[in-house]
Amino acid sequence: MKRNKLALAIIVAGAASITLVGCNDDSDRPASYRTNVAVFDGHAVGCTVTINGGEFTAEANTNVAGQYTFRTVGERIPSGSVVTATGCIDADTRAPLPSFLGVTQGSGAVASPFSTLAVAAAQAAGGDPANLSQAAIDEAATRIAERLGLGKYNPINPKSANYVSNVGSSAQSQALMTTAMALSTLILAIEKSGSPSTASAAVSAITQALLNSENPVDLKTTAGVQAFLASAASGANNAVVGGILNTTSGAVAEKIAQIAASPTPGAAGAIAQKLGQVLSDPESTIDDVGSTPTENLPPINVGTTPKPDDVITGGTGSSN
């Protein structure tokens, strides 16, 4: 297996940037617009990318950097529309990525592990869950960044959210990528522990636990991860969701802390890669994660763009 690891987020993430391009060569024809959605935590390929409402038509993934294109005629995709990326594969590790949420922001958007939590927080605040108000998403993004100790980082800003491009030279980008891989692995483990519907509710529960925390959540220690997931479980809206979170905590808390506390993104990526292989195995269970050896793994390369002939192809974009 190739030892490369990239950062994943969708931008419309985060997480990539959405760029809207208008053109109208004939005054009798309505303007057409192109929306580029980039998915990253590492570059994500093979994704099915959707935008709420079923109003827009999207093309298949054609770019090695996880870019997905939506084309609309006569209208732009409204700001505040919720973007979802599912079925993604990390272009370097070949490991699966969990589902991510993003939100359009004018001429751009972001969908990454961080934006996933920000969108979930904004949806929990009320209003139309498919068309988020700017006030709700701004407040959610700020609070999520604070609780995760991300400093001034804005997880929904399409101009600055993508930490992948300069991860080789920026200490902040390296820290962001390491935390993102810990969150991605946690969300993937939650998905493994429950059904799609209960997993979504569990992600909402960990989001609420973040928002309710008085201090930044400590993901770098096993005790910190356990306390965070225990808080989420106790605040869950039903016993099934709480049980999923408790099961996930018992199985992966130590591994999540190991990723988050890694000295480099490459070291974190090696662990995430190993656990991703276990989590994607249909014959494995969530308990198998805890027994997976992850000590002293060789670091993998991160932040690189794969060659066109070295990328898993497939995936679609749509508005359903």
One letter per element, helices H and strands E, the order comes to EEEEEEEEEEEHHHHHHHHEE
Strand content: 15-25%
The helix count comes to 8
C-alpha geometry: globular
The strand count comes to 13
What is the helix content?
Answer: 25-40%
Largest sheet: 5 strands, mixed
**Strand numbers in spatial order across the main sheet:** 11-10-8-5-13
What does the radius of gyration come to? 18 Å
Mean pLDDT: 82
Distance between the termini: 34 Å
Number of domains: 2
Description:
This protein has 320 residues and is an alpha+beta fold. It has two domains: 4-164 and 306-318, no CATH class; 171-302, no CATH class. Helix content is 38%, strand content 16%. The chain has eight helices and 13 strands. The protein has helices at 113-124, 134-147, 171-193, 196-212, 222-234, 239-260, 265-280, 287-290; strands spanning 4-5, 20-23, 32-38, 44-45, 48-51, 57-58, 67-73, 82-86, 89-90, 100-105, 108-111, 301-302, 316-318. The strands form four sheets. It has a five-stranded mixed β-sheet. A four-stranded antiparallel β-sheet has the order 2-3-7-6, with no helix packed on it. A hairpin with a 2-residue loop joins strand 10 (100-105) and strand 11 (108-111). Helix 6 packs antiparallel against helix 7. The radius of gyration is 18 Å and the shape is globular. The two termini are 34 Å apart. The relative contact order is 0.18.
